[in-house]
Hints:
Layout: H1 2-24, H2 29-56, H3 61-101, H4 115-164, H5 170-198, E1 207-210, H6 212-221, H7 223-229, E2 232-237, E3 242-245, H8 247-263, E4 270-278, E5 281-288, H9 295-300, H10 320-330, E6 335-339, E7 345-352
Parallel strand pairs: 2-4
Antiparallel strand pairs: 1-3, 4-5, 5-7, 6-7
Helix pairs in contact: 1-2, 2-3, 3-4, 4-5, 5-10, 6-8, 8-10
Amino acid sequence: MIATGAVVALATLAIGLAFAYVLRRLPTVRLQLAGLAVLAVLLPLGAVLLSGWVMFHMGDDVKILAVTGASALTAIVAALVVARSIADAIDRVREASTELAAGDLEARAPEDGPAEIAELAASFNEMSGNLRRLFDSRRELVAWASHDLRTPLANMQAMIEALEDGLGTADEYLPALREQVQALSHLVDDLFELARIDAGALTLELHRLPVAPVVSTSLRGVEAEARLRQVTLAADVDLDLTARVAPGKVERVLMNLLTNALRHTPSDGAVAVRAEPVAGEVRVAVEDSGEGLDAEAQARMFEHFWRGDRSRSSRGAGLGLAIARGLVEAQGGRIWAEDREGGGARVCFTLPGS
Length: 354
């Protein structure tokens, strides 16, 4: 009997492995699940019937067959129902992915079904949303770049035509032409630097240096504009505080943040730079006493060419904060914006402390 049982067990194992290999070759998940359901019922059922026939010679074979047949049919139906539910959930995700591949950026998959498939659908929907935001950002980038390039070019064209028609003198228009050329040059330089940042081609050499001199240099760079706007500048930085930085790039970041803060700070307001060590890093914050940030500004202010409604008429192409983010991240830090307690906005970034 032991030998017979061993033979039945080995035969069952061999048949199961053979059918498992066949199931893996089926073209769809639906067929694989259905085949697995049938195999999971029929294989042990066949082993039980064969063992019973060997041991008892199937004296009451009709009753045994009836009971086992009914049990097997119930198990198969239940397994097929479950298999269909899983396959249908997968089909819904597949249909949404097909729509997305066809260009429908609004395609979303229902986040229902088994937990794993629901998580897959949630990840797909997040990816779809990110793609939509990416394409929106690209459209905005093209629109703003076209606008910011076209405006100075149109001004230059008008001044050149005025000179050609004798409607003005060179002394009158040359300073304005020089300003327009400088504006275009700054915009092209910013676009080139952003392209390097986005391509991961920006490499920086970091040095351990005091933070205070870098902050002082940046504040001096915007002092004239602050005086013109009647905005008070302040700094709160420990003279002994050091960080691993590329000093020129940190100054560029601070200049961009300070310029942005001044644009949104009313007369008699204040802008301050604070730096402190936090958890092995150095956190630098630029604070202003302006109107603060809405939810959209907090989420999008570091995007290329994005400008909030309050600043659309202001100078600049909307690249300063995007460049600031790229330069901070290239130094191993991170940057974010938040509302300041008591009113105004705070833009913070970190630098490696060691």
